[in-house]
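Is this the right way to post structure tokens for a design question? Let me know if I should format differently. Anyway, here goes:
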């Protein structure tokens, strides 16, 4: 069960390969124009993954005026991912798909004089428009951009032209690393930092941020829920309330598998940010790979709840469910809904 976005049919108007693994898509609504959005916003797309409709979220890139009336996203092809990127890469110009209205859980603060942006890999996508907006407003902005190799530096040329030395890249294949602690220390007190990248980068930023005594509210995260601590493999999930015993394949999220089995779970962002899909863990044989940025580190260590949209398990997990069949109206749910 999803939150309630407005949906529209969009056509693939253009594609551009930015790197060997990152493809940009311009999506043009079939009727009317794109709905107004601000940097940090994302679209949900309905995709055919493994023969079933599944939802994936992609950040909008740049500024609306750059593609008047349309949307622009960029998708990194992940052969061991949840299948959404492969579905996107199979689309050709002229194909249609269904997109939500833009949603924004990662809104930029326009009041700050100084802002630090930190991107890991494809996490650059929401930060491009943020950097453009801040420069346009005359604010000071510094963008740290880490990738594995030079070929993955999508949008770097335009960002270099925009930001000059305020763009700092770190290519791990060349032994380069971002010095997050130093960069955060150089940020004026009260200035915000926006981070979009894999879980490890978010953890590092959070650690450096709190070690310097900065307010947690000034550090904003977005992730793409693809990377975790543990290998991505199939696992078993049991939902006794529904009599469900499901094997979640490597290419599918727990949330998608639950929905396909008729277990309703409230969801929204589907990338580990909003917390709507949090479910209670009743039993665990194995290990949970928490890949969200919603639960606290303490909650993750406790393993009593997990975000079904991105987190995975090595082994077997037993869950409670938020929604009960109509035949069991008097039973009390132990499911944690976070609003
Ligand atoms: S749907 Fe938002 S955290 Fe899972």
């Amino acid at each position: 069960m999803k939150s309630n976005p407005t949906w529209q049919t969009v056509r693939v108007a253009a594609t551009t390969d930015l790197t060997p693994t990152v493809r940009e898509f311009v999506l043009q609504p079939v009727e009317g124009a794109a709905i107004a959005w601000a940097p940090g916003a994302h679209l949900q797309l309905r995709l055919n993954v493994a023969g079933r409709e599944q939802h994936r979220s992609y950040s909008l890139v740049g500024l609306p005026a750059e593609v008047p009336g349309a949307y622009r996203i960029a998708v990194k092809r992940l052969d061991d991912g949840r299948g959404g990127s492969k579905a996107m890469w199979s689309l050709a110009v002229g194909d249609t798909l269904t997109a939500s209205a833009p949603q924004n859980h990662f809104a930029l603060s326009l009041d700050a004089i100084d802002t630090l942006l930190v991107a890991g890999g494809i996490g650059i996508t929401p930060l491009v428009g943020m950097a453009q907006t801040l420069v346009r407003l005359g604010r000071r902005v510094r963008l740290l951009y880490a990738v594995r190799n030079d070929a993955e530096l999508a949008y770097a040329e335009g960002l270099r032209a925009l930001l000059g030395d305020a763009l700092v890249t770190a290519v791990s294949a060349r032994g380069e690393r971002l010095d997050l602690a130093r960069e955060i220390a150089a940020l004026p007190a009260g200035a915000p930092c926006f981070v979009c990248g894999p879980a490890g980068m978010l953890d590092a930023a959070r650690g450096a941020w709190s070690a310097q005594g900065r307010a947690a509210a000034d550090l904003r995260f977005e992730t793409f829920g693809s990377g975790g601590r543990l290998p991505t493999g199939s696992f078993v999930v049991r939902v006794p309330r529904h009599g469900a015993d499901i094997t979640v394949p490597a290419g599918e999220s727990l949330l998608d598998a639950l929905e396909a089995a008729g277990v309703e779970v409230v969801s929204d962002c589907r990338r580990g940010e909003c917390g709507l899909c949090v479910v209670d863990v009743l039993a665990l044989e194995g290990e949970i790979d928490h890949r969200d940025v919603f639960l606290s580190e303490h909650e993750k260590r406790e393993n009593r709840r997990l975000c079904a949209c991105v987190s995975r398990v090595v082994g077997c997990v037993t869950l409670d469910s938020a929604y009960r069949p109509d035949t069991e109206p008097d039973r009390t749910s132990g499911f944690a809904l976070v609003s």
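Format looks fine. Someone answered above. Worth noting: Residues 124-136 form the longest helix (13 residues). The chain is about 15% helix and 30% strand.
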